Amino acid sequence: MKNISILGSTGSIGVNTLDIVARNPSRFKVVALAAGRNLSLFKRQIDKFGPEIVSVIDDEHAGKLREMLGYPVVPKILSGDSGYREVASWKKTDMVVSAISGAAGLPPTIEAIDAGKDIALANKETMVMAGELVIARAASRGVNIIPVDSEHGAIFQCLKGHNKKEVKRLVLTASGGPFLNLPLERFASISLDDALQHPNWEMGRKITIDSASMMNKGLEIIEARWLFDMNIDKIDVCVHPQSIVHSMVEYIDGSVIAQMGVPDMRGPISYALSYPERLQGAVETLDLCSVGALEFMSPDSGKFPALELAYAAAGKGGSAPAALNASNEVAVGAFIEGKIRFVDIALIVKEVLDSHRTKEINRVEDVLDADCRGRARAREVIEKRMIS
Ligand SMILES: NC(=O)c1ccc[n+]([C@@H]2O[C@H](COP(=O)([O-])OP(=O)(O)OC[C@H]3O[C@@H](n4cnc5c(N)ncnc54)[C@H](OP(=O)(O)O)[C@@H]3O)[C@@H](O)[C@H]2O)c1
After folding, report:
1. What pTM was computed for the model?
2. Residue nearest to atom 43 of ligand 1 (CA)
């Protein structure tokens, strides 16, 4: 029996994780849960899975949750940063599913690593912002980090049993999102609803918009750089609209090993939860004959400048990827609020990166400083754009 804590249980990854737990009661038990503000769903999850400890975003939400639960015996209810850290390091936990969205996922993930918990990592921002630190910290504590991102889960599997020195390059596949075939001239009028229509995956709003701009793939390049200790110039992106090939590893002899499956996040999540074993019937079987043709093409950097921005930030290193991530989060937030256009997201990130003074990252505080600077600068750029 593996005891699980989930950070971000009310999100898309969290809900899928709980579905796997519910279908495998003899393998997994939920001992701790953390959510943000979605109290009605969180209450249902608490009722169903009976965690010992839970946390929400702040005291106000914790108070409301306490009233809603109203049991004679309630789980320990906490809130905020310290609450998330306690969920992440709960004594009975064996594995933490890190699935809070955005930079907010970093501190509790680090707390979990420091407490020696294995990590099923969905929160890619942790790796983008602090990959080098996180990998070193996990290694020093003997912590396994198993990727949940389908691309990284695929590469993780394609590397198994092979000599890493013989890897020529990693190829991350990308669906291309809803605007793959939209002419560039129409990008200026993309609406929020348009950007939220992902063709293959149902995900939270932030990652869905990142997928539409392909910043998601940019973040994943940086995530792969640290997870697999691979130079950035050995990580490529290939657009594959069907999302059947989840990613590939090319070896020096010209062989390419790909991992395939139906586009269902319960596949990579269940692999991460049960690693090194596999769960029976985790997802529907892939029938390639009924899928038919699979397409592959190069990304269009004219339509999707975010990819090049991510390569540039990764090339600069130090605090630059954290600034990239922070400015993107602020810009995506502004797009969701209707303050800027879709095409402005990459322009804002570029302006922030161009003016960012890259500093070394030696401690978590350096990461948080870069995050703060990136956010502040992005807000300035957005305000300037709204005025002019
Ligand atoms: N969805 C996917 O298929 C997918 C695939 C690969 C990787 N990922 C990564 O997994 C992470 C989660 O993605 P998602 O799609 O599941 O996101 P999501 O549906 O938006 O869910 C985010 C979760 O985090 C919580 N949350 C948001 N902001 C928070 C904050 N400031 N403090 C504490 N909790 C907060 C939310 O709580 P409330 O809703 O209760 O407020 C929710 O539980 C992201 O890093 C994403 O890039 C997702």
Report:
1. 0.96
2. 8
